[in-house]
Specification:
By secondary structure, the protein is an all-alpha fold. The protein has a domain of 58 residues. It is 72% helix and 0% strand. The protein contains four helices and no strands. It starts with 5 loop residues before the first helix and ends in a 5-residue tail after the last helix.
Length: 116
Amino acid sequence: MDHLSSDWSAEVEQVLKDLEDVDIDNARFDELVGKLITDVNEHVREEEQQLFPSLVQACTPEQLYELGEQVRRAKKVAPTRPHPSALDTPPGNKLLAPATGLVDRARDFVTGRGRS
């Protein structure tokens, strides 16, 4: 399975959703957390060893900077928590993600989530 694909993202979201339904004392909790850690570490390793070097070879420094800017802009409006039942394909995801992100940020502000 290509871990850089949206399939990987959906798989991680499903594991996170499954974790919500499992008591911390349940053996399944440890199994799911272990799977999540393994999958995320593998994904990061693939990005660092394959995707990023390929981008450096294929792009000019200006293009890399612009890609970075696009990622920073997207992070400002992206949801801050998983939403497994949310639409994940265009155009629905493009239309709803900013609103979802806004609601998440308001919720984070009220609850103090993300503050050091």
